[in-house]
Design the sequence.
């Protein structure tokens, strides 16, 4: 056992070894503390980045869902009508359209209105599938498959449609700006 008197009687090089060991231990402790602090800061930054990215992904998924929902509602409503209530049909579709799409829709209705009334055409649209092709902050494109069970004086007909729906965000709401049939490619 070493006492206080023994330390004083040690050779100078032995005392300096003890002092160096003490200093190394203190330096090692500071280094470990610094490394642990850096790991803690890096972990906190990493968690923050993950939460930010998670929010971005959730926001993008919500936007895609809103776009798909708007396109799906449009194609079902567009393909659901009755010759006895054409005016209410037009009124139900118009709020889903931008100004330019309303013009296209009105032109199409002028062309087929007499046919719908003369044949007493009734149609029920049924959504089959949809897929968002792209979404930007103010425009989007959705591909939609819809069937329509049509009945007229000529009898029942099952119709199959594939549409490309272009949407614009107007005052925070996704509205149909254009709608075009997607032609099936011929199989050779």
Sequence:
């Amino acid at each position: 056992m070493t006492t206080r008197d023994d330390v004083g009687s040690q050779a100078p090089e032995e005392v300096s070894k003890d002092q160096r060991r003490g200093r190394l231990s203190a330096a090692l402790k500071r280094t470990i503390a610094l490394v642990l602090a850096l790991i803690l800061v890096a972990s906190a930054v990493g968690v923050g980045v993950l939460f930010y990215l998670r929010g971005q992904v959730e926001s993008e998924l919500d936007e895609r869902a809103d776009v798909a929902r708007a396109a799906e509602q449009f194609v079902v409503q567009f393909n659901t009508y009755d010759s006895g209530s054409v005016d209410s049909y037009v009124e139900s579709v118009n709020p889903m359209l931008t100004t330019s799409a309303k013009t296209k829709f009105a032109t199409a209705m002028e062309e087929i209105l007499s046919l719908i009334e003369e044949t007493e055409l009734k149609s029920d649209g049924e959504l089959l599938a949809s897929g968002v092709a792209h979404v930007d902050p103010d425009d989007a494109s959705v591909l939609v498959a819809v069937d329509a069970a049509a009945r007229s004086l000529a009898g029942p007909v099952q119709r199959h449609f594939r549409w490309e729906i272009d949407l614009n965000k107007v005052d925070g709401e996704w509205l149909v700006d254009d709608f075009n049939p997607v032609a099936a490619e011929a199989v050779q």
Q: What stands out?
A: The chain has one domain: 48-181. The first strand starts at residue 81 and ends at 82. The chain has a mean pLDDT of 85.
